[in-house]
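Reading is simple: each integer encodes one residue's backbone shape. The lines below illustrate:
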Amino acid sequence: MKKLSEKEIISLKGKRKLTMTTPLNYFEAKIVEEAGIDEIGLGGAAVEMCFKGMPNGTKSNLEELLIFIKAVRRGAPNTFMMASIPYGYSFISDEETLRTAVAIIKAGADAVKIQGGSKTKASKIKRITSEGIPCQGHVGLETMYAETIGGFQCIGKKADEAINIYEGALRVQEAGAFQIDFEDIPYKVASEISKRLDILTVGAGSGPDCDVQVLMYSDMLGMGYPTGKYPKHTKQYFNVYGEAVTVLKKWKREVEDGIYPNEKEHSFEIDDIEFEKFMNKIGKVII
């Protein structure tokens, strides 16, 4: 499998749909690459929420993210990987944002992502792309700031909201981003904006007309949310959580019933003569 470049990804707009998912370790990344997924998306929010079980990604930090980037890169050396700049690291200045982006690229990512389509965020994207670092934007529901608007919800149901999203997307494109994440935007709005952009749009709960579809690895495989309340835009193709609980319960029963481990199938032998020497040395246990 040959890793896509930024230029090749841009060239695929309108030609075929691309896929992106979010492995968090070496083994998951190996599975993703073997499946032929086009892009990997990794971010502090995913690390905080899926790995640590936190309600959001506001506690994420760069040092932890770099560890995950290195692990995922080892598992998927030939898959294009984008990593989000963690919460707070793009707040201070364009230069601080650039330093963070450089650290992410040095760890093994091929691109970085910044949430938001404001003029301030566009300025930071431009600073990054001016140094030749591929950057992805993000408009619609900005997950890092979801709590400030009352939680996770669809953005763009009102005309003025939809216009703000469109204007933000144009700013992100003008700043040099190669693709932009549309998260939880009404599908009609996402479709019309996508038609008007030269860069690729990444759909997360924003309908089928986006150029790239992203689905979190943990959501796709049903690895979390034991209550069954997954986000509306996700689809569970398997139930890892439920299956794992079933397997562990079965294993526990077999241990308690003496079925596992079996001496012949799961254990190792010792030559009778060697065992006799061993026993002569330590002596028999008198019960």
User: Anything to note?
Assistant: The chain has a mean pLDDT of 92. Residues 6-220 form a domain with the TIM Barrel fold (CATH 3.20.20.60). The two ends are 63 Å apart (CA to CA). Residues 240-256 form the longest helix (17 residues).
